[in-house]
Known about the structure:
Layout: E1 5-10, H1 17-27, E2 30-33, H2 34-40, H3 47-56, H4 69-76, H5 80-103, E3 110-114, E4 129-134, H6 137-148, H7 152-160, H8 165-171, E5 174-177, H9 182-205, E6 217-218, H10 224-239, E7 245-249, E8 259-260, E9 262-268, H11 272-284, E10 294-296, E11 306-312, E12 319-325, H12 330-343, H13 346-366, H14 370-394
Parallel strand pairs: 1-3, 1-4, 2-3, 4-5, 9-12
Antiparallel strand pairs: 6-8, 7-9, 10-11, 11-12
Helix pairs in contact: 1-9, 3-5, 6-7, 12-14, 13-14
Residues 13, 34-35, 38, 69, 72-73, 76, 83, 86-87, 90, 94, 116-117, 158, 161-162 line the site of dephospho coenzyme A.
Amino acid sequence: MAPMLRVGLTGGIGAGKSTVATRLAEHGAVLVDSDKIAREVVEPGTPGLAAVVAAFGEDVLAGDGSLNRPALAAKAFADEESRRRLNGIVHPLVGARTAELMAGAAADAVIVHDIPLLVEGHLAPAYHLVVIVDAPMEVRVRRLVEARGMAEADARARIRAQASDAQRRAVADVWLDNGGAQDIVLAEVDALWADRLVPFEANVRLRRPRPPMSPVITPYDTTWPMQAERQLARLRQAAGDRLLRADHIGSTSVPGLPAKDVLDLQLTVSSLDDADAIAGAVCDAGFPLLEGEWVDDPQEDGAAPWPKRVHVGADPKRAVNVHVRSPETPSWRLALLFRDWIRAHPQERDAYAELKQQLARKHAADGTIEHYADEKQSWVNAAFTRAEVWAAQTSWTP
Ligand SMILES: CC(C)(COP(=O)(O)OP(=O)(O)OC[C@H]1O[C@@H](n2cnc3c(N)ncnc32)[C@H](O)[C@@H]1O)[C@@H](O)C(=O)NCCC(=O)NCCS
Ligand SMILES: Nc1ncnc2c1ncn2[C@@H]1O[C@H](COP(=O)(O)OP(=O)(O)OP(=O)(O)O)[C@@H](O)[C@H]1O
């Protein structure tokens, strides 16, 4: 797929997707609207409409031969099996048409895909960014009944047929609360466009990594594992079969450890040739390659350095470093060992946290940051020795 920026926009019925989508389109986004496509594929004379009639009967047709939508909705949302049957007919047609529209967009487009069933269809990893619009259930029901004239029972039946809040939270890179007045959410959308989507698009198109993070240490963020999982899901989908495994490593992977707000991820491939073979797809998925020859320091004197490839996330609001390594390099194993060891040793974690804070204070005071990494590394090197003892005692394997 061409490397345009793909934004998945979703939310429960009545939450305000169209409101957000319309504003993004005003800024210049190319809208792909699944509800609209779902109507087009069942217009009079289409094979889609014929299939729906064959499955649900002539009484879902209006007098003029077009689809009687309320009649079909009454059947479709009455039970799970009927809805599945309808989805089975309509979704493949919608999918094919969506792919066509996306393929036709300009290379510098920001595509906003307004797709009600993104979560239900497990489609999140296909997007560079997933935006969820939310409003409390009762507010949504009221809007649908008052502004759209929907029967309350129908509104609730559709809400029941959709994903839960927790399922939406898990895939949301951006959560827009539209429970209040419209201008509040629209101001958030304006900022999202200017501060995130515009630079994100340019970074992906130009294969330009985002600027490096300042080395500020933040308290542990309990959403880091979930955020890492979302990025890993994108990377797995982009990299395909050559990817042997994908892991969250580094300080943000250790519960309770304060860290720089950067997600470190490790992609395992069998060789550097495979790292190069997946590089293009990884770039287009939103993780441009960091140019240069990257090596991890060997721990033993005289050992050859361990080469790797490094990709850096293009999203200006989410720092991600992707280390692509072969399991033959000791640093591949150490990344996983260090994580598992420090997760299992809260006292070591706290000592490490204390050291990082001390170094940060010291180097903030004298204005240097270069020595920060060196001093930290000497603690880590000593910790590796303790971790190896633990690995041997517990028969740890990566
Ligand atoms: C049943 C139909 C005819 C009812 O038409 P109606 O004009 O009342 O609703 P409309 O299509 O505008 O959809 C409004 C909202 O209902 C919800 N909804 C629609 N279909 C579904 C579904 N299959 N499952 C869950 N929610 C759905 C979505 O939140 C959507 O935004 C229509 O929704 C339909 O054909 N649905 C199947 C296709 C589909 O899944 N569309 C949604 C995205 S592709
Ligand atoms: N913040 C708001 N305050 C009041 N009304 C709102 C607000 N946001 C949206 N609405 C109204 O609520 C209704 C639903 O909003 P909208 O059409 O944007 O939701 P949607 O998520 O696209 O719905 P659907 O799932 O049916 O496509 C509309 O009539 C809209 O005008």
